[in-house]
Amino acid sequence: MTEKQMDKLAEIIFQKLLTRQAEFDKQFIEQVKQSGANIEVDYNDEVFGLDEKLVLQMEIAKLNELLSQHEENEDYNEAAKVHDKLNKLIDKLEKL
Q1: How do the domains of the chain map onto residue ranges?
Q2: Largest CA distance in the chain
Q3: How many angstroms separate the CA atoms of 89 and 44, rounded?
């Protein structure tokens, strides 16, 4: 593996970690809110170092991969659901 390939792989892993951490942070904030605690956090992805455009691009890439898997497995009902989500995210990204 070349240095360039390792850097690219490291960047992909880092971005996935950031995305997962943002998801965990959202879940944590939601759990705190559901517990009845008073929390004054206006959550957005920029708080955790990600901008909305980047998050949408990453989610679109993930959904494209999932869509391909469902199509390969001939699970067309799930593929249709993923396709709908994908179109909504693409529309949202285009509006930014």
Answers
A1: 1-50, 51-96
A2: 51
A3: 17
Q: Would you give the DSSP letter of residue 48?
A: G
Q: What is the pLDDT of residues 20-66, one digit of tens each?
A: 888 887 787 777 777 765 555 444 544 455 577 777 888 888 888 88
Cα 11 versus chain centre, distance: 15
Q: Which amino acid is at 42?
A: D
User: Is-contact 43 29, C-beta < 8 A?
Assistant: yes
> What's the whole-model pTM score?
0.49
Token look-up 């494209």 returns: 64
Contact 92, 56 (CB under 8 A): yes
21 alpha-carbon distance from chain centroid = 10
